[in-house]
Amino acid sequence: MAKKRRTPVEASRDPASVFMLELAEESGFETAFSRADDMSPCPIGEKGMCCRICSMGPCRLVKEGDVGVCGATLSTVVARNFARMIAAGAAAHSDHGRDLAHTLLAAAQGNAPDYGVRDEAKLREVAGYLGVEVNGQPVNELAAEVARVALDEFGKPFGEILYLKRAPEKRQQIWRELGIEPRNIDREVVETFHRTHMGNDQDAEHILDHAMRAGLSDGWGGSMLATDLSDILFGTPSPVMSEANLGVLKGNEVNIIVHGHEPTLSEMIVAAAQDPEVLAYAEEKGADGINLAGICCTANETLMRQGVPLAGNFLQQELAILTGAVEAMVVDVQCIMQAVVSLSQGFHTEVITTSRKAKVEGATHIEFDEHRALEIAKEVVKRAIDRFPERAKTNIPSERSDLIPGFSHEYIEYALGGTYRGSFRPLNEAIAAGRIRGVVANIGCNNPRVCHDSLHKDVVKTFLENDILVVETGCGAIACAKEGYLTPEAAFEYAGPGLREVCEAIGMPPVLHMGSCVDNSRILTVLSQMASEGGLGDDISDIPAVGMAPEWMSEKALSIATYAVASGAYVIMGHHSPVAGSEVVTELISDGWESKVGGRLEFIDNLEEIVERTIAHIDNKREALGLSEYDASQWGRSGDAKMNQLVDLPLEERIEASYGTVAK
Ligand code: BF8
User: Fold this and answer.
1) Is the CB of 297 under 6 A from ligand 1?
2) 0.85 exceeded by the pTM?
3) What would the mean pLDDT of 270-298 be, rounded to a whole number?
4) 78 in Cβ contact with 94 (< 8 Å)
5) Whose C-alpha lies nearest to ligand 1, atom 6?
6) Ligand 1 and 303: CB distance under 6 A
7) What is the DSSP letter of 200?
8) Quick check: CB of 92 below 6 Å from ligand 1?
9) CA distance 256 to 258
10) Mind listing the pLDDT tens digit for each residue in 113-169?
């Protein structure tokens, strides 16, 4: 019997998405939401119990005590599958970082003329981390040397990843004592696949130890490089005004969606869309202009640096096409559903793949080449313009919310003390005093198996009420942006009294948008700096903080979770556990990892329990540090008058009153 489909309001918490899902239903279009309803997950694969790594199987293990044809136990099979997922996620992030290193090298050598070093201070800082001497050499010489050392990090034969030194001393010692310090970025991924090949590592604990090493090669390796090199090439983010949700699409302009993860091409598309000749071409075709908007992490990249609005998160990629207002969806790598191409065929939308690594059958492929980046970007934009006259009826939802993203760790430090006194001390002190009870990093995807955006919105709302500062990246950040949590005045509306005081004093939102998923490395940097600053212990595991991805779906989210745990954090993943098939593995990644590295990983499918465990963990860490018990009644007697004045001002004036001048 066919499964019952959810209604649009059961499927999504986002009103713009509900509107589009109603439309899809009326017009008979399939989406990930309806496909998820129609297809139950495989009950064996879902729990990690299917072994298909050789041709004696696939072996379906259904209960403890079952073994595969080779004798592999349930815990071995579940651990192997899990480790492979982590390695795939680490590979995706790290390969993204590698490409940026190549772009920086090409730019520095004059082979990518449309790129250059946009943030010299960051270049010098990164040179320091990578051991490159800064001796007054020309910028491009320094950039080339930094790029070469960065590229070496992927495959050097000896030593360990250089960025490990950015972690607190104590943390580094834990890794080295356990032998899980990553040696180079690629090696740990390759070794995961070697170990989990048939007939190799068949001890769940041993497999999972290496999985932590692979995760660390992502967090403190590939992702951290991706973040740093993007900042060097495109600028380190600072607050900027923008908007989020499908309502950012424009009825009278050519709408181009950039979707995927890499900022390299999308940055050029931003430039191409502002080119007078290209704009004139759009006008010739009857459009009032060219409107760029983003989906997924390409969106976060161009949002943070250029203020390009967010059309939506992962589950809105099909919904954007359903508006009938998108001339082109330009995709690069990761999180692109194959379904966008077949769906686009019902509209005038052209899906354009651009990465040499990712073609989608039926899409137009225009391969990106950094040596002639702007020229290719203009070609792409012109193709979109050509589609504009073919546009039929549009259905653009009205929802769009203001947001202020751009909270790089550099900017947070600056916001907390200005140019000369920038440090994390005020944040540590606010936590120590109890104004801020603790910190939650809410990150990760959407998943059509849970009500879209609902867990992101609900957990964050509760944390804010409890004076917990929230930092975000990825699709979680987009979910909360749509809800209006990412503006300074959201503190007034949603935050508890202590957190509100801090936000009012600094003029910051209670939820800080820190970027794309590779930018979770920025969160590692913040945590390290908080640990080094003093007052909250001397390791990441001492800080009253929790990481979570309540609506996760991708292997990258598992890699992030694993490196965060191996760095000392308690991490909660929502809805379903890919290791549910083995109690042994479930225990190994929670209690087992906690005894080794201080962090633990849990999969919890219940909102109340996620919130309860998070708050309990934060309070336990406060107690272990000897901090005062959290008491909201102490706070909230300052600043309200000022916020009352601000809340009715137009956005721009509100921002200026809070931040001074903000980029537009
Ligand atoms: O890297 S949060 S759905 S878009 S995987 Fe993908 Fe998940 Fe969104 Fe960004 Ni991250």
Assistant:
1) yes
2) yes
3) 97
4) no
5) 335
6) no
7) S
8) no
9) 6
10) 999 999 999 999 999 999 999 999 999 999 999 999 999 999 999 999 999 999 999
